[in-house]
Amino acid sequence: MNNIKDLTILEINDLMQRGDISCTEVIKDTLNCVEKYDKKVKAFLTITPDNALKEAKKVDSKITKRMKINVLEGIPYSLKDVFCTNGIRTTAGSKILDNFIPPYNATIVEKLNQNGSILIGKTNCDAFGFGSSTENSGYFVSHNPYDLERIPGGSSGGSASAVALRMGLFSIAEDTGGSIRQPSSFCNVCGIKVTYGRVSRYGAIEYGSSLDTVGPIARSVEDLALILEKIAGEDERDATTVPCEVHNYIEEMKSSVSGIQIGIPKEYFPDKGLDKEIKNKVLEAAKTFEDLGCHIEEVSLPSTEYAIACYYLTAISEVSANLARYDGIRFGYSDKSSKNLQDFYKKTRSNSFEDEVKRRIMLGTFALSSGFYDEYYKKAMQVRTLLVNEFNEVFKNVDVLLAPVSPTLPFKIGLHKNDPLAMWLEDAFTVTLNPTGCPGLAIPAGFSKKGLPIGMQLIGPQFSESMLFRLGYHFQEATDYHIKKPKLIEE
Amino acid sequence: MDNYLFTMNKAKLTNKLIQHIASLAELELNEKEIKRYKMQLQDIINYFNKLSNLDIKNIIPTSHVGGIVNKFRIDKVKYFLKKKNALFNATSIERGYFKTKLPFKK
Question: How far apart are CA A80 and CA A131, in angstroms?
Answer without folding.
Answer: 14
